[in-house]
Amino acid sequence: MRNLKIMGCANALPGKKMMFKDQTRYRLEEGETLLDLCDVAVQNALEDAGITIKDIDCIIGGMATPLQLIPCNAALIHERVAKGLEIPAMDINTTCTSFVSAMDMASYLIDAGRYEKILIVSGDCASAALNPNQQESYELFSDAVSAFVVGKSEADAGVLYAAQKTWSEGAHDTEIRGGGGLQTAFLFTEENKEDYYFDMKGVKVLKLTAKKLPGLLKDTLLKAQLSLDDIDVIVPHQASKALDMIIPHLGLQNKQYINCVKEYGNMVSASIPFTLCNAIHENKVCKGDTVMLFGTAAGLTSNILIFKY
Amino acid sequence: MRNLKIMGCANALPGKKMMFKDQTRYRLEEGETLLDLCDVAVQNALEDAGITIKDIDCIIGGMATPLQLIPCNAALIHERVAKGLEIPAMDINTTCTSFVSAMDMASYLIDAGRYEKILIVSGDCASAALNPNQQESYELFSDAVSAFVVGKSEADAGVLYAAQKTWSEGAHDTEIRGGGGLQTAFLFTEENKEDYYFDMKGVKVLKLTAKKLPGLLKDTLLKAQLSLDDIDVIVPHQASKALDMIIPHLGLQNKQYINCVKEYGNMVSASIPFTLCNAIHENKVCKGDTVMLFGTAAGLTSNILIFKY
Question: B9, B8, B306, B10: which is closest to B158 by C-alpha?
Answer without folding.
Answer: B306
